[in-house]
Write a structure and sequence with these properties.
The protein is of the alpha/beta class. It has 14 helices and 7 strands. β6 and β7 form a beta hairpin. The structure holds S-adenosylmethionine.
Length: about 350
């Protein structure tokens, strides 16, 4: 009798193929969306697109190579058990179907803001009391900045489109260094390990940390009540203890000195003015235990990615980002050292940069 081929032998290959196809689908979708929305913006606000420069074929080639590398790193980390392979396919599908039409419906408001050059516009019912002035911006030209439920509902979708479907793969690159950093606390029971995500937004990073560290106590802070509400909703869907979310300014963290074993922060620092970047790092240092690890993920910088200079110049024009230009040349290693961190490593993955910093033991 002919034997049935052992499907298990082929499962990793099939899963990898499924992952690559899934990622390619997201990339194609992001590109198609941006092509169409850029054409429309061109029609309604022609002067906006004229301010940007086209990317050279060499840049596009390098981008493609880095994209392939990112996906390989993502796949390999899942293979070595940094996180379960199921995380590679985690996608907010119901939000996608529910809110994708809203992304288009919001565009006329964005064009209006662009035409009027009005980037600090908030609905009258939004309470703007108590926020730092630098925060009251329509970042990415978003309606209501970070301060409405509509903005929170559209955010993840918009970020995935912005990064051509790679936002989650870039976020996941914090997980290996975080877990590695936490090995300094190997004698601490897993349930007693505390990790804080600074500026957690809608909780995408916390979702990933939960998958990688199922037993740890997780915490998240953000300035936006609407984003925290969304994070609470999305984090309630997954198994495990619900992370504790607090509304707070990262410049003044509401925690005791040395409370956390690990800290993460994703896509925050480019949205802060320079002095706030420094204060946030100092606060991170304060709330970290001696021997603890801080892992930052943010945009690439001109300092070490000159090949993407045109892209970095286009970004703050296409997406309202008032602090980005300064960020691209800001030496965060110096800032981290000034805050007290040591043993600082850097990595780049696709269009993100990572800093892994330690508090002296
Ligand atoms: C680009 S989003 C990144 C969100 C999330 N980390 C992610 O990976 O998508 C920036 C986030 O930083 C938050 N934020 C900005 N300034 C902050 C501050 N000073 N303190 C706390 N959160 C802040 C915003 O509310 C927003 O949720």
């Amino acid at each position: 009798m002919q034997s049935i081929p052992n499907i298990d032998r082929f499962l990793p290959d099939l899963t990898k193929l499924a992952y690559q196809t899934f990622q390619q689908g997201k990339t194609m979708f992001g590109l198609a969306h941006k092509t169409l929305s850029n054409q429309l913006t061109d029609l309604f606000v022609p002067e906006q697109q004229q301010k940007t420069k086209p990317l050279s074929s060499e840049t596009l080639e390098i981008l493609q190579q880095r994209l392939v590398k990112l996906q390989e790193a993502d796949w390999q980390d899942a293979q070595r058990g940094v996180y379960p392979a199921s995380l590679l396919f985690d996608n907010p599908w119901s939000d996608f179907f529910r809110y994708y039409p809203e992304v288009w419906l919001d565009m006329p408001k964005i064009w209006e803001r662009l035409q009027q050059k009005e980037y600090q516009q908030f609905a009258s019912e939004i309470d703007k009391e108590g926020y730092p002035a630098y925060y009251l911006q329509n970042f990415h030209y978003q309606t209501d900045g970070y301060l409405s439920d509509l903005s929170a509902n559209l955010y993840d979708l918009q970020v995935e489109i912005l990064f051509n479907g790679t936002a989650d793969a870039m976020r996941r690159r914090i997980l290996a260094p975080l877990k590695q950093g936490l090995t300094a606390f190997a004698t601490v029971p897993s349930q007693q390990i505390r990790v804080l995500d600074v500026a957690c937004g809608t909780g995408r990073t916390l979702r990933m940390i939960r998958a990688a560290l199922p037993k740890a106590a997780l915490f998240g802070i953000d300035l936006s009540p609407a984003y925290l509400r969304k994070a609470n909703q999305l984090l309630s869907e997954i198994p495990g203890e619900l992370p504790q979310l607090l509304k707070a300014n990262a410049e003044k963290l509401p925690y005791l000195d040395g409370y956390f074993h690990g800290l993460t922060s994703v896509f925050l620092f480019h949205e802060l003015p320079a002095n706030s970047r420094q204060r946030v790092m100092e606060e991170c240092f304060r709330v970290l235990q001696p021997g603890g690890v801080l892992v930052i993920c943010d945009s690439i910088q001109s300092l070490d990615s000159p090949e993407f200079q045109t892209m970095m110049e286009n970004f703050p024009i296409l997406f309202h980002e008032p602090y980005y230009r300064h960020y691209t040349t800001d030496n965060l290693v110096e800032r981290l050292e000034k805050a007290g961190f040591v043993d600082i490593q850097r990595e780049n993955h696709f269009v993100s940069k990572y800093w892994i910093a330690h508090k002296p033991a």
